[in-house]
C-alpha cells in the first residue's frame, strides 16, 4: 500500500515513511491510495474477533495498510498494545445497551480514561519499533491543555529512543489532570509548566519547530491528531462495535461520534469506505459547531479565537477541524488540485469555503452516510441527568453531546445506533457535580493520585528557555 497527499503529491510513500512525519511536503494530509475492500471477508473478520479477540482484529485491519513491517512483528505490536491489563476489559471496547436499538461503546478504559489512548498506545509501540529499526531517536515536543498530552505521555513512558517534552499552562489544568501527568516518574517524560495560557504553550512549540536547525539537531517531532497511524488505529473499533451489535453481515449499524478535530469520525468514514455496513455516521458537536454547520449547509467556516468558546466538553472546543481535509478529498472524488484550492485559497485566505449547490455536496448523506447535530451545556446537563436517572449509567460531557444528538438522528428503528463514549466522567468532575449533585466514581487505580509526588519544571513563557531545557535533557 502506498500513501499520497490530499493536495496532489502522489510520490509513493510507505506506511513507515509517513509514520514519523507530520504534514505532507505540499501541506496536505496523507491518505492511502485506495481503501481495501473487506465486504467479502466480514464473516471471517467477525470470527477472528470472536475467537481471538481485539488485538487479532487490529492486526487484520492494520495489515491491509502496512506492508513495510513484517507480519509477525505487526501482530506482536498489536498484541502488546491491546491487552486487558492496559484497557481494563477483555473486550477492550465493550458495548453497553442503553435501550432498544441504542448502545454506548466504551473507548475510554485505557490509562488516561479517554479514547485517545486507543490510538496513542499503538503509536507509542510503533514509534519505539521503527526508531529502533532505524537506530534513531525522537524528542516529542507538544502543548496540551489536558487530554492529548496525558495520552501521549502514558503511551511513550519508558519507551526506548523517545523522550517527551510536554508543555502545559501552569496551574490551569484540573487537579486530576495535573496529577495524571505530573505523577509520572519515568525519566523520558518531561512536564514543563509554562507561566502563561495554552496559546503561549502552542506558540512556544511553533517557535521551536520553526527553528529548523534546532529541530534537526535535537530530532524534534510531534504526535498531533493528523497522524495517519492514529486514524488507522481508530478504524479497528468501528469493526469491533459492528460485530458486537449485530449477528450477521446483512445487518447495518449507525454511529454517533462526539467530534472536534474530525479524527475519530474520519476513522468511521474509512471503515465505511472499506465496506463495513455503516448506515449513518452522525457528527456531534458542542457549541463550537463548525462541522455541524458544514454538514447542514455545505459552508465550512472556521472560527477566530473570539468565536471559539470554552465549554464543558473542552476536548471538542475547536475552531477548525484538522482532519477534515481528508474527508473533503474523498468528497471531491480524490481531486488533489480541487482540495488544494479549497484549503489554500478558501480556508487559509478567506477562512471558509462554500459547497452549496455543488452536486457532490448535495449527495453527501446518500454517498457517505453523514449527518450531524449540535449540543449545548444545558443539553449536556439534561442528558447526563436523564442517563443517570433512567439507566443508572454515568456519562461524561462529550459522550453526553453524542447521546443527545444520537437520539435526534436515530431514524430507522431497525438499525442499531452506537454512541462512542470518548471519556470517563471522572475527568470532568465539576460538570458531573453540577448535573447530578454528586461526584463521579473514581477507578481504584486513581485513588489519591493528587497526593503523589509531582515531577514538573516551571518555566516562563519563553521559547529560548524551553530550548535550553530540551538541550540540557536530551543527551544530544
Ligand atoms: C479528542 C476528543 C474528542 C474529539 O475527537 P476528534 O478526533 O478530535 O474529533 C472528543 N471527546 C474527547 C473526550 C476527546 O478527548
From TrEMBL:
E.C. number(s) listed in UniProt: 4.2.3.1
One GO molecular-function entry: threonine synthase activity
What cofactor(s) does the depicted protein rely on? pyridoxal 5'-phosphate
Q: What class of enzyme is it?
A: lyase
- Residue numbers of N6-(pyridoxal phosphate)lysine PTMs: 116
Give all residue intervals belonging to the Tryptophan synthase beta chain-like PALP domain: 92-336
Q: Does the keyword Lyase apply?
A: yes
Q: Which Pfam families match?
A: PALP, THR4_C, Thr_synth_N
Biological process terms in GO annotation: threonine biosynthetic process
Gene3D superfamilies from the UniProt entry: 3.40.50.1100, Threonine synthase, N-terminal domain
| Keywords from the UniProt entry | Lyase, Pyridoxal phosphate
Q: Where is the Threonine synthase N-terminal domain?
A: 2-82
Stored NCBIfam families:
thrC (TIGR00260)
Q: Which family does it belong to?
A: Belongs to the threonine synthase family.
Can you name this protein?
Answer: Threonine synthase
Which organism does this record belong to?
A: Melaminivora alkalimesophila
Amino acid at each position: 500500500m502506498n500513501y499520497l497527499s490530499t493536495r496532489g503529491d502522489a510520490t509513493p510513500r510507505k506506511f513507515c515513511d509517513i509514520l514519523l512525519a507530520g504534514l505532507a511536503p505540499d501541506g496536505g494530509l496523507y491518505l492511502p491510495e485506495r481503501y481495501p475492500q473487506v465486504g467479502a471477508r466480514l464473516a471471517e473478520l467477525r470470527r477472528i474477533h470472536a475467537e481471538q479477540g481485539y488485538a487479532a482484529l487490529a492486526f487484520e485491519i492494520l495489515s491491509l495498510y502496512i506492508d513495510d513491517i513484517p507480519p509477525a512483528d505487526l501482530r506482536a505490536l498489536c498484541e502488546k498494545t491491546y491487552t486487558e491489563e492496559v484497557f481494563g476489559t477483555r473486550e477492550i471496547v465493550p458495548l453497553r445497551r442503553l435501550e432498544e436499538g441504542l448502545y454506548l461503546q466504551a473507548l475510554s478504559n485505557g490509562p488516561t480514561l479517554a479514547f485517545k489512548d486507543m490510538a496513542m498506545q499503538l503509536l507509542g509501540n510503533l514509534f519505539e519499533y521503527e526508531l529502533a529499526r532505524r537506530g534513531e531517536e525522537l524528542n516529542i515536543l507538544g502543548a496540551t491543555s489536558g487530554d492529548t498530552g496525558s495520552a501521549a505521555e502514558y503511551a511513550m513512558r519508558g519507551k526506548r529512543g523517545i523522550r517527551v517534552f510536554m508543555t502545559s499552562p501552569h496551574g490551569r489544568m484540573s487537579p486530576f489532570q495535573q496529577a495524571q501527568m505530573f505523577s509520572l516518574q519515568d525519566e523520558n517524560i518531561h512536564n514543563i509548566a509554562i507561566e502563561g495560557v495554552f496559546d503561549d504553550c502552542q506558540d512556544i512549540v511553533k517557535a521551536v519547530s520553526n527553528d529548523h536547525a534546532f529541530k534537526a539537531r535535537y530530532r524534534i517531532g510531534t504526535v498531533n491528531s493528523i497522524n495517519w497511524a492514529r486514524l488507522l488505529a481508530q478504524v479497528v473499533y468501528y469493526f469491533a462495535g459492528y460485530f458486537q451489535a449485530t449477528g450477521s453481515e446483512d445487518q447495518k449499524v449507525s454511529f454517533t461520534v462526539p467530534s472536534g478535530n474530525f479524527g475519530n469520525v474520519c476513522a468511521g468514514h474509512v471503515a465505511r469506505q472499506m465496506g463495513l455496513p455503516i448506515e449513518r455516521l452522525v457528527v456531534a458537536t458542542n457549541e463550537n459547531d463548525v462541522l455541524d454547520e458544514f454538514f447542514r449547509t455545505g459552508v465550512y467556516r472556521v472560527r477566530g479565537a473570539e468565536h471559539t468558546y470554552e465549554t464543558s466538553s473542552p476536548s471538542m472546543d475547536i475552531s477548525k477541524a484538522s482532519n477534515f481535509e481528508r474527508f473533503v478529498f474523498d468528497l471531491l472524488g480524490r481531486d488533489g488540485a480541487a482540495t488544494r484550492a479549497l484549503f489554500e485559497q478558501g480556508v487559509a485566505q478567506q477562512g471558509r469555503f462554500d459547497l452549496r449547490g455543488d452536486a457532490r455536496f448535495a449527495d453527501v448523506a446518500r454517498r457517505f452516510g453523514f449527518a450531524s447535530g449540535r449540543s449545548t451545556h444545558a443539553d449536556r446537563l439534561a442528558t447526563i441527568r436523564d442517563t443517570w436517572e433512567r439507566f443508572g449509567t454515568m456519562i461524561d460531557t462529550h459522550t453526553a453531546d453524542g447521546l443527545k444528538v444520537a437520539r435526534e438522528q436515530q431514524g430507522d428503528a431497525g438499525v442499531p445506533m452506537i454512541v462512542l463514549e470518548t471519556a470517563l466522567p471522572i475527568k470532568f468532575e465539576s460538570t458531573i457535580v453540577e448535573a447530578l449533585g454528586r461526584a463521579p466514581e473514581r477507578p481504584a487505580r486513581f485513588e489519591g493520585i493528587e497526593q503523589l509526588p509531582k515531577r514538573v519544571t516551571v518555566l516562563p513563557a519563553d521559547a529560548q528557555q524551553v530550548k535550553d531545557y530540551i538541550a540540557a535533557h536530551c543527551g544530544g
